[in-house]
Amino acid sequence: MKLILASQGFTTPQIAEAVEATVGKPLEKIKIAIINEAYVAIPAEKDKRWLINELSLISNYIGGTIDFINLRTCCKEEVEKRLSLVDMIYIVGGKQLILEKLFKETGFDELLKEFAKTKVVMGTSAGAVVLGKQIEKEEYWEKRQKIAYQEIEDKTLGLVNFNIIPHYLREDRKVWDKEFYCTVLKDNPFPVYAITDTQAIIYEDGDITFVGGMPKEIFE
């Protein structure tokens, strides 16, 4: 299984090179399918320019075909057919918890687990979080996500035995520093890596490598 967990996608040449190495093809030949439905729940007053930027970076680096797969409009058989044609599945982020619900309702959760055996799966922000292990610490959900953990119905996929905190120390998120996360994730039973927008984590058949420097490991 080959997974790439990032904050904001192809933000550096190093991340692009890591994608190329993980897929095992030159960037100009990689075919990609994009799942991009988590942004729809972001409030109207929030600027969506980040999404345009992220998709533009994909276009700048990926030379093969780029497909968009809408899980709400495509039947499961159509999704399966289109995923079979690509080298990498790219899951864009957006509103937290949207993807867990969407994947379960459409059956994409089980389909993705099967395709992850043969395809590279890359997630960014919430699209990366959904791939990781479920964080169950109540204080984390209450203080960081502003929701009671008991209200969460759908869980992350748990394809790996860790998870990430995306956009670590970005200008609008500096209040949530390592001290904050070490407090709300105290005694968490698995590693949680806080990564910046220029970092990524590569998981390849049990081995983990870091792109863009060592992230902050919240495991205390």
Describe the structure concisely.
This protein has eight helices and ten strands. The chain starts with a strand and ends with a strand. The radius of gyration is 16 Å and the shape is globular.
User: Mean of residue pLDDT?
Assistant: 95
Q: Give a count of the beta strands, DSSP E runs of length 2 or more.
A: 10
Low-confidence stretches: none
* Percent in helix: 25-40%
Keywords:
220 residues; alpha/beta; Rossmann fold; 7-stranded mixed β-sheet; 3-stranded mixed β-sheet; 8 helices; 30% helix; globular
Walk me through what this model shows:
This protein has helices at 13-23, 49-61, 76-83, 98-106, 108-115, 126-129, 138-143, 178-184; strands spanning 2-6, 32-35, 66-68, 88-91, 120-124, 163-165, 192-194, 200-204, 207-211, 216-218. With 220 residues, the chain is α/β, with parallel strands linked by helices. The protein has one domain (2-38, 47-218): Class I glutamine amidotransferase (GATase) domain (Rossmann fold). The protein has a 7-stranded mixed β-sheet with strand order 3-2-4-5-1-8-9. A 3-stranded mixed β-sheet has the order 6-7-10, covered by helices on one side. Strand 2, helix 2 (49-61) and strand 3 form a beta-alpha-beta unit. The model has no long low-confidence stretch (mean pLDDT 95).
